[in-house]
Input
Amino acid sequence: MVLLTDRSQKRLTIQTGEIAADTTTIRSLDWDRDRFDIEFGLQNGTTYNSFLIRGEKIALVDTSHEKFRQLYLDTLKGLIDPPKIDYLIISHTEPDHSGLVKDVLQLAPDVTVVGAKVAIQFLEDFVHQPFKRQIVKNGDKLDLGNGHVLEFVNAPNLHWPDTIFSYDAGTQVIFTCDAFGMHYCSESTFDEDLSRIEPDYRFYYDCLMAPNARSVLSALKRMGELGEVKMVANGHGPLLRHNVEELVSRYRRWSQAQTKAETSVVVFYASDYGYSDRLSQALARGITKTGVGVEMMDLKSADPQEVQELVSRAGGIAIAMPPVSSKTAAAAVGTVLAAAKSKQAIGIFESYGGDDEPIDPLLRQFRDLGLKEGFPAIRVKDTPTEATYQLFEEAGTDMGQLLTRDRGIKQRKSLDTELDKALGRISGGLYIITAKKGDIKGAMLASWVSQASFQPLGLTIAVAKDRAIESLMQVGDRFILNILEEGNYQALMKHFLKRFPPGADRFAGVKTQPAENGSPILTDALAYIECKVSSRMELSDHWVVYATVDAGRVSKSDALTAVHHRKVGNYY
Ligand SMILES: Cc1cc2nc3c(=O)[nH]c(=O)nc-3n(C[C@H](O)[C@H](O)[C@H](O)COP(=O)(O)O)c2cc1C
Output
């Protein structure tokens, strides 16, 4: 292993190593998160993984982020004389993997760039110079010699439209780029420590893959037609070698659950335009939190028949306004309008692209058709911030909740009454959970709270999957448990039970002070406890969040905790 460290303050290092016969990984380790991307929520940094396969011919699979320019190129030159590279395989063109393609082309002008048709088109706009290319389709093979026959697998939407996987029959390694990845930066090249990485693996899936669950299942089916897979050489995080079967099967299980959702929303975005794809992802995450499925579709390459099919079976439609200049996108929006039906929900937003079609005339047309508003139109006037992404996630959740409301009411009515009454005898206290992560704040009223361990001191809270604050209660996150006082809880309870619109400041008009962990303490609460999420157990409709506690204080030693007595067990 070679470790190089950049001189700047940011911790950027490079790790190289042999991972299989004739196969070297070049992992760019980005220890410090320096921008907000929805799937970076767990803040464990990330890695950008690139690979060199040396048969008789030599192939480089993906490059790195441009912030690694010097480090990556020096490392590459240390491993190989760049003009000797025959093929540069582009798994997809997102800049964190293809940011240095132009530099590699300068060092190796005769290299043949291998990628899906869309990837090559994107690259033409990106590198602005002629290059040799080879467009590959599903099932195409590239023989590098010495047994390294690469077979390409079409994996569109994982998570870019142009994604391909490359399977090396010689080593049984599959190169999957974003798929099966995670934003987790450590010295470990592989996944030996499953319990440490699994929250990040899941969170990354939820953010990037769940909105494309159907595409995940199609890609898994194609992967199944290959030979045995011994290693998944992903593009982010540790490579999968010890838990290949387990982690791949989780993608299958989670995606099957997504596609079984009774209702779905189709989210139309414009790839490569403004912040359309990122904001759509945040929206999609908010929707999937409610158990509603999502289908993402790129307006700029949408097939009219597919648009029509998706819209006709969806419960809701969300549209990111495309650029005025895109005729294909305008035609696709026309197809959406023609296929839309009353009773569907609609939500429209701008993505700060600079040249968006206006929202109002389109929204009016949907309303005239009888569609109900899934969330109020969102107009992004500045570069998106953390708060913008929160707004989109909450808007998505609102839309999902609108579509599942009737189901929830039905479920509540369907419980057996005697059992229901007996369950209602389980009581709890009244608490407000408050959390702050970066610029984002959240709060919720809770009563399913219980101490759960002595050593270390810990407690559990059952948090419904579609709670806004759920995103701030990931493993490693900190929050405050505010304990309400008997006889003095009404005002706080009433305030936090209000229905807050997406992105609203839930603390407006409430007295708070910052805790040591940064989250707001409610001044009028009886006591508070500082907590850190240690693990989460997934149930059908809730996450049971287990947190250890570091500090706490009671404001009135003789006062009692507010108790919540219930009559029935089918609500809190
Ligand atoms: C008495 C009471 C206790 C509650 N306890 C919980 C709880 O333990 N967990 C939970 O997820 N929601 C609980 N809720 C529901 C949420 O507090 C409430 O719906 C939430 O604040 C709405 O937030 P949202 O906008 O994120 O959906 C409770 C509600 C009430 C009325």
About this structure: The mean pLDDT is 93. The two ends are 54 Å apart (CA to CA). Residues 33 and 400 are 30 Å apart (CA to CA). The pocket of flavin mononucleotide is lined by residues 444-448, 462-464, 467-469, 496-497, 500, 564, 572 (CB under 6 Å).
